[in-house]
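Final paragraph of the annual report: two paired records, presented back to back.
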Amino acid sequence: MKNDTPISDVVVAGHICLDMIPDMGSDQVSTSLEEILTPGKLVSVGPAKTATGGAVANTGLALHRLGLPSRWWG
């Protein structure tokens, strides 16, 4: 039986997550961090961007950029 699965030199296993990064907008730039993080304060944010995160995704992407075939297991 022929296996068409490509061989990987590295397997990265562990936690994979999805990072959600809110758009704080230009009106928040002049505001200090202490003012933004005041307990009970409502802060308007724009749409969130998503990106892969966690040790598996970060390491796997770095290996891919270095040209090493890798598989991720989460």
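The closing record of the year follows.
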Amino acid sequence: MDNKKIEQAKAVLEQAGYFTRNLWHVDDVKGKFKCTEEEAQDVLNDALTNDATMEQIWLAIEIVGESKSLIELNQD
């Protein structure tokens, strides 16, 4: 896929409210391990969706939001 199509896809996602400035690619995994595309996708899935990673992201969102003096919504 060419860069223009990727940028267009990212623009669509950004317009829908998604953050697209930190995307991971199978080549990130394949540059470190000998594996297939499918295995690389599986590594990315497990690495990016595990509980520890998700907890760190939520914690970072909270810390950065507070540092920017954003008002936290009630968590009922």
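Residues 24-76 form one domain. This concludes the annual technical report; the extension proposal builds directly on these records.
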